[in-house]
Amino acid sequence: MPTLDINEIREILPHRYPFLLVDRIVEIEEDRIVGIKNVTVNEPFFTGHFPNFPVMPGVLIVEAMAQTAGILVLRSIPDRDSKLVFLVSVDYARFRKPVVPGDQLRIEMKTVRRKGTVAKMSGRATVEGVLVAEAEVMCKLENRE
Question: What is the pTM of this model?
Answer without folding.
Answer: 0.96
